[in-house]
Structure formats: structure tokens, C-alpha cells
Amino acid sequence: MTDVTLPPARVALVGNPNSGKTALFNALTGSRQKVANYAGVTVERKEGQVVTAQGRSLSILDLPGTYSLRARSPDEVVTRDAVLGKLAGEIPPDVVVAVADATNLRLVLRLILELKAVGRPMVLALNMYDIAQRQGLRIDLDGLARELACPIVTTVATRKRGIEELVAKVEALIGEGALGTANAWREPSAGEIRDAHREAQRILKAYVRPPERPDTFTGKMDGVLLHPVAGLAILFALLFVMFQAVFTWATPVMDLIKDGFGWLGVFVAAHLPPGIITSFISDGLISGVGSVLVFLPQILILFFFIILLEDFGYMARAAFLMDKIMGGAGLHGRAFIPLLSSFACAIPGIMATRVIDQKRDRITTILVAPLMTCSARIPVYTLIIGAFIPNRQVWGFLNLPGLVMFGLYAAGIVSALGVSFVIRRLFWRGTAEPFLMELPTYKLPDAANVARNVLLRGQIFLRRAGTIILPLMVVVWVLSSFPGAPPGATDPAINYSIAGLLGHWLQPVFQPIGFNWQMTVALIPGFAAREVAVAALGTVYAVGGADAATSTLGATLAHHWSIATGLSFLAWYVFAPQCASTLAVVKRETNSWLWPTVMLVYMTALAYLAAFVTFQMAAAAGLG
Amino acid sequence: MHDMLPANAATTATAATAAGGRLVRLGEAQPGDGGVIVDVRAGDGGGERGVDAHELHRRLLEFGFVEGARVEVLHEGAIRRDPIAVRLDDMRIALRRRDAEDVWVLLDPE
After folding, report:
1. Residue A297: inside a domain
2. Shortest Cα distance, chain B CAs vs residue A306, angstroms
3. How many domains does chain A have?
4. Rounded-to-integer distance, Cα A461 and Cα A42, Å
5. Residues of B (53-92) whose Cβ lies below 8 Å from A
6. Bridge-partner residues for A573, per DSSP?
7. What interface predicted TM-score (ipTM) does this complex get?
8. Are B91 and B23 in contact (CB under 8 A)?
9. What pLDDT, in 10s, does the model give residues A416-432?
10. Is the backbone of residue A160 left (phi > 0), alpha (psi -120 to 50) or beta?
11. Does any CB of chain A come closer than 8 Å to the CB of residue B7?
12. Is residue A163 part of a domain?
């Protein structure tokens, strides 16, 4: 051993979608990874560190999955440019690790032939090798390595098998100073793609013996899951279970968080001298943090389902089942996954539209994504439903609040389909992106991987919450605390604050939809993020001293609002574009102010209309 | 497997009839239909498309819809029997019937 540290090196993981590339990345880097964006584009950049046995530090880049370097979507462009060393702000990789699903080599062999043309030193990782062995698939590893002129490692990323060997092979390539050859890659013509397939077929035939016990499970499962009737029924049942779970499983933890922060607020208020600082800590900070953390459980549960279904291989089936239904509304089958992600948060949803290669399909999907009920609406819905909808059973087994929640989700979905139908008719007609998608074999999701990805989503949410929502909570506290009430005032202090003045000033606009000035006040910070409205209502009513500290916000609202107002508020939140981050992401993703403006205008118009109709109808029905 | 590369559908059709099989567009095949791809062409299926015919052609080729590949229709959607799920050699692929128009399949003789 010497003390000389070897210079660090860069490694890029490239492979087809569904090849277990991300699992391999996790196995390689463990928790030493960070997620950011590539400079100038919003493609997620995942990088991690691993140290070789020789002490060299490798930084591993997990590139988006692709079938070809002939990139079409922004994700695939990143992969191509990173491999070619043309990506702005990125140093080209020293070694490329091609990740292949050992049971599905045909398409990846063609990708490997393209990578060979690029000329970077390469290691081939045959992942999911255990499944290949179980199926009795025989691969002549030595022969294949000779043919491809690159070292091969067999790996089982989910069991961390072959990882050390992979690192050793990469180290060996760097150690021996493999430099690679000049790039000879260019976009292949149709004829060249045919030739590459023929070459891949020849290699397959020469070095891979077909499985003795091929996977029959996928075929059997598809017989049910892709069945025209049963398949759709299962899909809708799954979605229903998912939303019931989000609503019921999370409740105990949410109660715990809510009570915890409530207790903390009271504790602080009791032990610090009364005054402006204590008010800030207890009413601004603690209730702000609490209102953000309280729905983390729901986000985690939602992402748990999405990631589980994705890893199982079901999401592609869902896209297949939904393609025609969504196609009728002018959406692409691939829009299903971004729209489903939008149920957690429109931001990852909008970013996930990058898999839709055609601009028009993509913009349509982006415009309707915020209509999907994101988890930021959940606290608003939960609060209002809890305050105005009686908790009882209907038809013996469904609970009414759950049913109303389901109805709100349905309203979001139906309006998204309606809006995309209109966009299709108004802005562009006729054109449609081809729908061509691999249906991966079903795989048992790996618990550790699912857990890691769910936690990652949670972290991203908290980071956003910490950077946007929390400062806004402080602003709300300031707006609703200053200036203080004049001496001898009889009204609650908030009536004299800036927020109070703003609320009163805007009130006439919102009066026809049944909003009082406190709600109008809450809408202003609510434009930063939807869930802020809940905390803002809390601040407005708590600071206003409307009720004793023990009373919950829901009870306060039930006391101050009519049912018609509550329903109108729900209708408003189905449509209102109350999320500055979403608009910012749309600006970034479309690289234009036009689309965020279109989104803001059409959603606000729909929200006002829906709330107006709801309020007037409910008031006419005697609920005003 | 790759020795049969007809120049156009006419000669293919002749060969197909001689072999006792039936030549169909993949876009019109039924679940259970299986055969060998004999021709993948650039946009003779007509119809409106978002991407041009050559782009679709290359995408089909990239996914492995190449002459000589084995293909079998496994499933179809509930509405207007669209899209379809096919087994292509050893993979499964979902695609719309419209996009499968340009893939000609010589069905196995009954």
C-alpha cells in the first residue's frame, strides 16, 4: 500500500429502461448520492460516489434509460450528450458501464454496438443474472466479452452481487490507462439500424442459448392484467385502494404529528415570556413547520404505491390500458405516468412529461397535470371535509368523507380530460405521437430499493417545503401581525394588519363565490403553495384569537363558515393554480412565459367559475 | 432467419401464397395471429401522423420490428381493439394499430 491517492475518475451508467440500472446505481453508491439537475435543463441528475479497492474515488452518474443514442426526448438527449462528452458543464466519463438485463439482451446489444462506436472504454454489467440462471439461460461470457471487446461482469444489483467485481473491472480499465478511440458515432439510418439488429441477432445466436425455462409468469399475469375488461377493472380497483390507503393509513401518523406540534406550540407559549418573539415562534414557526410535516405521511404512501407498481412492471400496462381512454381526450398513453405522479405533486409530474417526445403531446400533458389532485391539496381538502362533511358510513361500507375525497379526485381527472380535449381541438388537430412501449417482464420489487426511492421523494418534498413554504409562513405571520391593533381596539388584532387590509380590499371580488375576508387573506400566501392556505387560515384565525387554543382549526371554520362557503372553497381548490413552484417549473420546462400564463389564466377562470356555481347552488339549496 | 428480405409487398405476397400463409399488416392482425415480419416500410399506411413516416419507420426498427423477427399479437385494448400488445421475438411491446400499419407479417399457415 502506498499513500499516493489515485486521481478520481468518472463513470456513467447507460442502459435500456427497466434494466435495473437505478438499482445498480444504488448498490454501487449506497447512500453516498445526490440528486440535482443538469445545467440548463431539468433532467434529474443522479450522481454518487464509490471508492475502489485501490483507493480511487469514482463518481458514478446514473444516466436516463434509452434504447438508442439517437435521442428524441430531453432525457435521452442528456444520455447521448453525456456519453459523447458534449453536455454543458459535464466532463465526459472515463468509463461507460453498459447495464443490461441479462434476460433481455436483444435491444441492449444494439445500444452497446452504438456505444462501441462512441469509443469510450466500456464495461458490460449483465444485471439480473440470477433470473437468467433460474430460467436456464446460458451466456458464453468469455465469448461475448471477446466479441464485444469489453470486460463483462454479472451482477444482481438487488442482492449487491457482483458489485465489487464491477468496481474492480472499472478500476482495472482506468489503471491500465485505457483511453478509448475517437468517436465514430453518428445518427444511424434505417438501413444501419437493420444492419445493427442483424449483427445483434448474430451475436445473440452465437453466445446466448435461449432459456430452458422461459418466464411464463409474465404471460399469465398479462392474460388477466391486460384483459380488456378485467384489466381495466383491476386498474380502477388499484387506484381506489391507493386513495383509500392514502386517506386512512396516514391518519394515525398525521394525528401524532399534529398533536406533537400542537403540544410544542403550547409548551413554547407557556415557557417563554409573552410577546412578539414568542408569538413568532409559536404561531409562525412551529405551526408553519407542523403544517408542512403533517402531510408527509400521505406523500410517502402515495409514492410508495407509485414506485411499487413501477418496479413491478405494472405502470407500462396501465399506460397500455389507458391509452385509448386518454387518446379520446387527446392525451398520449405515456401521459398516464406523469399524470399519476401529479397526484403526489404536479412538479415531478410535469418533469416526468419528458418521456413524451412530441412537443404538443407534452405541452397538453403539462397544462392539465396541475388539475390532478396533488398532495398539497390534501390538507386543504382534509380540513374542509373534516369541518363540513359528517363522518358516517354510506351503503354500509364506504365512509362519506372518503367518498367526497374520491369525488374531488374524480373532478380533477374529468376536468383534466375535458381541458386536454379542448386544447386538442383549439390549438392543434390531427397529429399524434406514435405509441410504442416495451412491456417489461414482471419482477418482484426489491424492498430496499422501494424504500430508498420513497425516502428520496420525501426528501425532495421536504427540501421544497423548507425552502418555499416555510419562509412564506413567516411572511404570513408578519403580514397578519403588523401593524398591531391600536390601543382600545375592540376587533381582533388581525383586522388592522396588512393581511387584513388586503383581504378586505379583495373581498368584493370573492364575495360572489362565498369567500369571507379571512379566506381571501389565506389565498394570497396560498399562491405560493396550496397547503400554505391551511396554515395561513390557522394563522389568521389563531392570531385573530377567534377561539381558545385547544379548539382545532376545523371546528373554528365550521363555526365561522356556512356549508356553501366550505363547498365553494373545495371547488376553488380543485382548479386554482395556487402553486408558484408549478408555474415556475412550467416556465422552465417549456422555456416560455406563454404556457405558464395560459395555465394561470385558464385555471383561475375555471376555479372562479366552479366556486361560483357551487356556492350559488348550495346557497339556493339552503346551505348558505 | 434473415434470409427473406423481399423488395416489396407484391413479391412477398406471391411468396406468401406459395408458402400457404397469409400476408397482413400488423395493424390489422387479431390476437392469436403469429408469424414472421417480412417487410417494414416507411409510411405506406397513410393516415395523419405527428412524426413523419421515416421517423416512425426508424422507431419501429429500433424496437426490433425488423424483417425476419417473429411477432405474435397477444392482447388488444377494450376500445376499438386498440392498442395492441405483441410478443416480438423475446420481448413484449405495446403499440397502436395505426403505428403498426407499416409492418407486414406473413402469418403462420393454419
Report:
1. no
2. 21
3. 1
4. 16
5. 54, 56-64, 66-68, 74-80, 82-83, 85, 89-92
6. none
7. 0.84
8. no
9. 999 998 988 887 665 56
10. left
11. no
12. yes
